[in-house]
Amino acid sequence: MDQTVKLGSLTLKNPVITASGTFGYGLEFMRYGDLSALGGICLKGISLAPRAGNPMPRIAETPCGMLNAIGLQNVGVEKFLKEKLPYIPADTTVIANLYAQTPEDFGELAAIFSEEDKIAALEVNISCPNVREGGVQFGQDPHMASAVVGAVKKRAGSKPVIVKLSPNVTDVRVIAKAAVDAGADMLSLINTLSGMAVDIRTRKSRLANVVGGLSGPAIKPVALRMVHQVVQSVNVPVIGMGGIVSAEDVLEFILVGAHAVQVGTYNFMRPDNAFRLVEEVRVLAESLGIASWDDYRGTLKV
Amino acid sequence: MIDSQTPCRDLEVISCTPAKDPSLVDLVLSAPGWTCKPGQFVMIRPAHWGAELVWPRPFSVCDVSDQGLRIIFQTVGRGTRRLAELVSGQKVTVWGPLGRWFRIDEARPNLILAGGVGIAPFVMLARREKTDNLSMLFGHRLDLEHYPYAEIADRIKSEAMQQKTMADIAEFETVLSERIKALAGVGQVLACGPEPMLKVVRKYCLLHGTDGQVSLENRMACGVGACLGCVGKTVAGDYVQSCVHGPVFDVREIDLGD
């Protein structure tokens, strides 16, 4: 079976991408597999200036999931381009994940990345629940989402623009439509669900930030439902994510209409999981007699 | 040496034995060809765990020998309680060795300061290093027989102090201070144990001008530098990741919030 999948002008070797925030800058995982064998890697969110992130504790394990409130700690775009990007192996499909606090800064980041040959696409993070400014509030308001996407699209050159949606909204289709109307080439969803974990003995939250983003298998049914809804409502490729830990999970997202998937918390469960998943997906698809992803995508019977 | 192309492997449990106090567990994994340095750690996740517990758990390596890869851990939460149920023949996924290790200075005295289960990484150290310039002070809560103390005391000069009361803790701190002061300018201390103890070690190292290294324990999701969940703060105010910049830090470099 040919694993290739086309998302508009972006072609992936296979549908498995590693999710932003769970795969560092890729370099951290090079001991565990060949980055270029993945469908793509989506980088840790990058801002114009370096960010220190939130205080500790930042992570907490919950049944079938985890909470994080990292707060977009990153080295900043300048250091990333100088000290990280050159070391990512050629032939790796690299998706930059952009974070900024204003539409103008989002545009500035897009302009910088548009000059980089090694960057295949831009993912716009308007859905981080762990930062005070510029995070999920952009992703909860269709007008602000539209302003950010417009600013990025204007300066992204030929790079495809992916908009990463938040599940922390009443109707995800409203934001999806606003993003597409503003020029988004594709959508990715879902980011983490806002959640909490507390300690009855210390009477404190398990996160210094009090609330954090829930990820892992616990959120998969929510993610699958939202991908299904969004696929029905817009006409651009959708990348599904949320709790994928098996080849079966990948096929479920494709069945409801996703073109590709992103794998997040699964990378923490074992550092070579994404690499293993590429092969497991191929084997499963072939065992089901799937000839191409185009044949299988969105064939859910309802 | 572990094959660098496959540093994540499923290893077989040789034994998983509760110590004389069942809160401590001695886990040995089949690991032919493994090498590791004292103070380094591995991430462990049983291969049969489903999705309920998503994280692996980080553990200092107690020893690597012909007998296998040995971990001694304390059961403190859901994950370690489940790990304690492992039986021989089961497979666990292991990646490592990871992180920075204790740097011995062979030309000067090196004093190990271990607290409780923090004694684990020093078993390998005592077995491997030249022992002339190595000694240990061990603070412990349970009776001594519950820990691998004798394995170290058989090889290097060691003393132990049990803490059952607040007065015992105060006395241990006094002795710690004396030992650290005695090494000022002439040697170094290597410490692993509960965070309050490490704060005391750091305080007296800075007060007396003694070189020291401390091994930090932090919650980790990945162990490889990606999750950014295990950060500590340097004295300069920068976040550093315990998994890749540590877990062993110079006392002058790391801020323990004291």
Shape of chain B: globular
Q: Whole-number radius of gyration of chain B?
A: 18 Å
| End-to-end distance of chain B | 39 Å
Mean pLDDT of chain A: 95
Sheet with most strands: strand arrangement of chain B = 4-3-7-1-2-6-5
Mean pLDDT of chain B: 92
**Unreliable parts of chain B:** 1-5
Based on secondary structure, the structural category of chain B is alpha+beta
Overall 3D geometry of chain A? Answer: globular
User: What portion of residues of chain B belong to β-strands?
Assistant: 25-35%
Given the structure, what is the number of helices of chain B? Answer: 6
Oligomer: heterodimer
Spatial order of the strands in the main sheet of chain A? 3-4-7-8-9-10-15-16
H and E string of chain B: EEEEEEHEEHEHEHEHEEEHEE
Which structural class fits the helix and strand makeup of chain A?
alpha/beta
Got a strand count of chain A?
Answer: 16
Largest sheet of chain B: 7 strands, antiparallel
Range of helix content of chain A: 25-40%
Characterization of the model:
The complex is a heterodimer of chains A (302) and B (258). In chain A, 31% of the residues lie in helices and 20% in strands. In chain A, a hairpin with a 4-residue loop joins strand 12 and strand 13. Chain A is built from ten helices and 16 strands. Chain B is α+β, with helices and mostly antiparallel strands. Chain B is built from six helices and 16 strands. Chain B is globular and about 50 Å long. Chain B starts with 7 loop residues before the first strand and ends with a strand. Chains A and B meet through strand 5, strand 6 and helix 8 of A and loops of B.
Structure characteristics:
heterodimer; A: 302 residues; alpha/beta; eight-stranded parallel barrel; four-stranded antiparallel β-sheet; 10 helices; 16 strands; 31% helix; B: 258 residues; alpha+beta; seven-stranded antiparallel β-sheet; six-stranded mixed β-sheet; 6 helices; 21% helix; disordered N terminus
